[in-house]
Amino acid sequence: MNNLKERVTIYEVAKASGVSLATVSRVINNASTVKEETKNKVLSVINKLGYKPSGLAQALAKNKTTDIGVIIPSANYVYISNILNGITEVCKNRGFTVSLHTTAHSREDASICLERVIKSHVDGVIAFDDELNKEDFEFIQSYSVPVLAINNEITGSKSASISFGYEALFKKVIKDYFIKGDKDMTFLHVHNAGRLLRRIENSFINTCLESDKHYSIVNCDDSYTRTYSDFMEIFKQKRKMYIIAYRDSIAAAALNAATDSGLSVPEDVEVLSIIGTKYSSILRPQISAMHIDMQEVGRRSVYMLIDLIEERLHEKQYKFESTYVKRDSTKY
Amino acid sequence: MNNLKERVTIYEVAKASGVSLATVSRVINNASTVKEETKNKVLSVINKLGYKPSGLAQALAKNKTTDIGVIIPSANYVYISNILNGITEVCKNRGFTVSLHTTAHSREDASICLERVIKSHVDGVIAFDDELNKEDFEFIQSYSVPVLAINNEITGSKSASISFGYEALFKKVIKDYFIKGDKDMTFLHVHNAGRLLRRIENSFINTCLESDKHYSIVNCDDSYTRTYSDFMEIFKQKRKMYIIAYRDSIAAAALNAATDSGLSVPEDVEVLSIIGTKYSSILRPQISAMHIDMQEVGRRSVYMLIDLIEERLHEKQYKFESTYVKRDSTKY
DNA sequence: TTGTACGCGTTATCAA
DNA sequence: TTGATAACGCGTACAA
């Protein structure tokens, strides 16, 4: 294969095989109306020349890119990269390409993403990002590109959504603990961590109020290191806590700080992780956590989006229910 | 903003502002040759109509997509998603869009990726995938798309590569252990885990041979769960081991199996992780590991690729040296 | 079964 | 400073 070959176009293939470019086009899109003989000839020329149709030109002509845009805050969270992996897996199988956009929890970057997604002519968008609000989704839809929102119930004819069922089960776990447990509960509030955590936090507060239980909210950073050192301080004073963290790394920070402070788990300190991943069971002590199969969420989101694009999606809402797995970081 | 608006074209903007489409184009690409007054008029019309230039058409006309293709095996490994995050971060800042392709360790999927990458007209490719061989890189380059390969030294005028410096330090760590350590070493061989591990495995074997030390190789799966249960079996027989695993999850599997078997770390069992991530220090006992800042690898790969695209890349090879951090899973 | 000609939404080269 | 007009590489009616 020679280097620096200029891109071969459909014209050259046509000329080299002695047919018109229309025929070449038909061969590419395997139309049935082309004679076996010419088809073979064209195919062999295509092969010889190493011709690859330009996705750009095809997309422009067909008004269809077979690209889907994915908007996430970052790939650096395990549960998000699980979703991403589910998405890429199905996209690959269904002939779509994914273009990845990250907002890095920044409103400014979110706007950039929106611009890019519109410019890039994607056939559809999957968005799992709390930086995006109602107006943003309307913006996307105003360019008539179908949207599937994860953890964000949106409306519109060209939209659908997947939601997470954490709250009901979460409430139940808390209430069960109220019956047998012996500690006040502490919720780790992460500034700007998004709607999901906020909803769960509200659900937490309400549950405590309903049950007339004392509780506390502690601010923490969305960082293992800082949360760890914060808790090393906290444990100098408080020796009994039940801590609710929104993901494994944060839960691990509290947990490690507890054991490193000579406290025993779950006798002195109990920790619950809301968004459990495989690390819930790898970490020691193993972390009691709520689980949703995020890879499956990713897969499902593509299925739904493609159906939406092809206008055959009937159920526009889908809910993933979580499960609770009690492990060693809590008593119940 | 009204729904289901059809895409506004440059033509409509031109008509609505009473100028030719050439002028609109100039405004978009902020050419200096356009009168302030008409420029403002056009801009206001663009705003009013919500016009966004079609990236497709622009790319076709300019022969430049401002997309870069990324090929990785999967987003489901922490160190890979770290790289990915570095890539997306810089791409966003430099005005590029990322199209993500995963091979899932399959040769068939790798071919699909190559096809897609060529079709999609990306301006460049970043590949960190052992499924890709020399011919594949030549294939990409034969379409004159610049390639940056991570962990794969390739040649060609439109190519560059980033390599990982694990072996020299790894050798040193082993030799240091030979001086003071008290166990034979066991290397976890993962079938089909790629060039990097194979190279390190060779380096391991050579070092042992040079030093005339006994060693063993144990086959294991690239899965926490299976490796864990394998080691639960192994530890019924062998009680003293120094285990070298290629990434944190695998190291954790051996480590957890050891502690769950009542063995003490690092007295009975020692574990070293080659590709350390943040989990090396989150897991307990903390895992001694070698580290390379993978996010920085991602960033650097984009910098180099962009320079390569713009033909101003001088140093075509860059090497990231690893560091060794001794933690609690080994004695030295 | 195949070819002609136009359209897709831009950029870029000329003139004006 | 602006406006026609030809590319860019392909799909697709319509004709042949």
Give the strand content of chain A. Answer: 15-25%
How many discrete structural domains of chain A? 3
Largest interface: A-B, 66 and 66 residues
CATH topology of the largest domain in chain A: Rossmann fold
Main sheet specs of chain A = 6 strands, parallel
Q: Number of helix segments of chain A?
A: 13
Oligomer: homodimer
* Model regions low in confidence, pLDDT < 50 over at least 5 residues of chain A: none
The CATH superfamily of the largest domain in chain A bears the name Response regulator
What's the count of strands of chain A? Answer: 12
| General shape of chain A | elongated
The secondary structure category of chain A is alpha/beta
How would you describe this protein?
The structure is a homodimer of 332-residue chains. By secondary structure, chain A is of the alpha/beta class. Chain A is built from 13 helices and twelve strands. In chain A, strands 2-1-3-4-5-11 form a six-stranded parallel β-sheet, with helices on both faces. The radius of gyration of chain A is 26 Å and the shape is elongated. Chains A and B meet through α4, α5, β2, α6 and α7 of A and α4, α5, β2, α6 and α7 of B. β2 of chain A pairs antiparallel with β2 of chain B. The first copy, chain A, binds a DNA duplex (16 and 16 nucleotides) through α2 and α4.
Considering the chains and any ligands shown, give keywords for the structure.
Rossmann fold, elongated, homodimer, six-stranded mixed sheet, 332 residues, 434 Repressor (Amino-terminal Domain)
